[in-house]
Amino acid sequence: MTQTVLHIDASARRQGSTTRDLSADIVSRLTPARIIRRDLSTPLPLLTEAWVDANFTPADSRTDEQRKTLALSDQLVQELKDADTIVIGLPIYNFSVPAAFKAWIDLVARAGVTFAYSENGPRGLLTGKRAILAVASGGTAVDSDIDFATGYARHVLGFIGITEVSVIAADRMAVDPEAALTSARTQIGQLAA
């Protein structure tokens, strides 16, 4: 049984969102003991010069203001650390990830915190976790040459150590929504089995 799920929704739509529906279905089938909820439709701040300066200041040398600047980022990282499974509702917007998801990535991909540089290249520090992406699109086929969202999400999750990534695809909804949803529900059923 999954102990703790971090449930992230990246859709700007709070109602009528395919990825929200699919990610909620996935979480309910996992029957976790605890769910941490992160809804990215409430915007996260973009990185600023003050944030970058605070992030690259050694932790024991940070001012109170710098600690305050990093507080949300620290919270987002802690949510990842606390979860053993991360479920992400991820729509494809204009061939890529929503800006809200990119803002989340920027706040959690931190050298020395979620990844480290070594002689052999970067090494993810959030190991032993899995992620499930519920991806939906209007016309873009998942994992096609024009899907810059799914591969990016897999890559960046792997970069921070989460290499076990499953994708539930409800793609090309504008072409055949019924078939796309049926396929996604079948995939979820197989994932739960």
TrEMBL record:
Q: How is the cofactor bound?
A: Binds 1 FMN per subunit.
Pfam hit, one: Flavodoxin_2
Cofactors demanded by this protein = FMN
Q: Which residues form the signal peptide?
A: none
Q: Which residues form the Flavodoxin-like fold domain?
A: 4-190
As recorded in Swiss-Prot or TrEMBL, the protein's gene is named azoR
Query: What's the top EC group for this one?
Result: oxidoreductase
Keyword field contains NAD: yes
Name of protein:
FMN dependent NADH:quinone oxidoreductase
Q: How the protein assembles, per its UniProt entry?
A: Homodimer.
**Keywords on record:** Flavoprotein, FMN, NAD, Oxidoreductase
Q: Which InterPro entries match?
A: Flavodoxin_fold (IPR003680), Flavoprotein-like_sf (IPR029039), FMN-dep_NADH:Q_OxRdtase_AzoR1 (IPR050104), NADH:quinone_OxRdtase_FMN_depd (IPR023048)
Q: What role does this protein play?
A: Quinone reductase that provides resistance to thiol-specific stress caused by electrophilic quinones.
Name the family. Belongs to the azoreductase type 1 family.
Q: Which domain of life is it from?
A: Bacteria
Q: Where does FMN bind?
A: S11
Give the PANTHER family listed for this entry: FMN-DEPENDENT NADH-AZOREDUCTASE 1 (PTHR43741), FMN-DEPENDENT NADH:QUINONE OXIDOREDUCTASE (PTHR43741:SF2)
> Which catalysed reactions does the entry list for this protein?
N,N-dimethyl-1,4-phenylenediamine + anthranilate + 2 NAD(+) = 2-(4-dimethylaminophenyl)diazenylbenzoate + 2 NADH + 2 H(+); 2 a quinone + NADH + H(+) = 2 a 1,4-benzosemiquinone + NAD(+)
Q: What is its EC number?
A: 1.6.5.-, 1.7.1.17
